[in-house]
Structures are given as C-alpha cells and as structure tokens.
Design a protein that fits this description.
By secondary structure, the chain is an all-beta fold. The chain contains no helices and 11 strands. A hairpin with a 4-residue loop joins strand 7 and strand 8.
C-alpha cells in the first residue's frame, strides 16, 4: 500500500520554526521527486517546494525562498521541510506529493502529474 504521511505541523508564533516530515512507503522512493504544497481555506493550492529524486536539485516558491529548506534522506524514505522565520501567511494545510521522475525537479503544476499525495498537516502561525 502506497502511503505518504506528513507530520510536524502545529501552532507556532510568527518568527518561529517548524520541521515538517513526509514519510513514504509502498513505492521505490529513490525514483520519485517529492513536492510540498499548501492550501489555506479560500485560497488556491500553492506549490511551495520540490526536491528531485537524488536530492541534488530543489525548487522554492518566491514566497518562501530564504526561509524554507527542503531535504531528503533516501535511506529513511523521508523528505523534510525546515520552516524558519514563519509568517502568519504561511498558515495552511501542507501536503507532500510524489512524482515518478529521475531528472531535474518537475514542474509543480499541473497537480495531475503527481502520482501520490499525503493527507496533510496543519501549520498555524499566530501573529
């Protein structure tokens, strides 16, 4: 059974930090790029960050560049999203997704390209 399980979300004050994890199982993790998306109610889904299968190429949305760092541990089938200097506008449900891709980071959209999705973890940043 394919699973992507996000964890690490929570409530934090503005300026604080969180580290999200995305634990994968049921597929050959090292062949997949992993992306992080977020969505706040009433807003469109945003592609936040992506890392390619080897970990050698990453992408960040302009809104998070310099504050978020994506990394992966293929031995643990896990991708991490270190989130620093959090702002209230970072409040959203964060989802990780996997796409079969051995090259450079794939485009984050369209989302139909992503093969598997997690259930999401809530991040709330208070002002």
């Amino acid at each position: 059974e394919v699973q992507l399980v996000e964890s690490g979300g929570g409530l934090v004050q503005a300026g604080g930090s969180l580290r999200l994890s995305c634990a994968a199982s049921g597929f050959t993790f090292e062949n997949y790029a992993i992306g992080w998306f977020r969505q706040d109610p009433g807003k469109e889904l945003e592609g936040v960050s992506c890392i390619n299968s080897s970990g050698g190429s990453v992408y960040y949305a302009e809104s998070v560049k310099g504050r978020l760092t994506i990394s992966r541990d293929n031995a643990k089938n896990t991708v991490y999203l270190q989130m620093n200097s959090l702002k209230p506008e970072d409040t959203a449900v964060y989802y990780c997704a996997a796409e079969l891709s051995r090259g450079d980071v794939p485009p984050m959209f369209p989302t139909i390209s992503w093969d598997y999705w997690g259930q999401g973890t809530q991040v709330t940043v208070s002002s």
